[in-house]
Backbone:
């Protein structure tokens, strides 16, 4: 079970932007030691 939990934590399934700062035009998502999973979802909220 420990290996499965480790592998599951390595792949990001949902990316959500929660910063409401209006000064940000571009943001590089930190992916240190993680990979974005193929077919991941990006959630963007109205500002």
Residues:
């Amino acid at each position: 079970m420990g290996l499965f939990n480790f592998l599951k934590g390595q792949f990001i399934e949902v990316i959500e932007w929660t910063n409401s700062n209006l000064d940000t035009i571009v943001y590089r998502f930190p992916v240190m030691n993680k990979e974005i999973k193929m077919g991941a979802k990006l959630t963007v909220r109205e500002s």
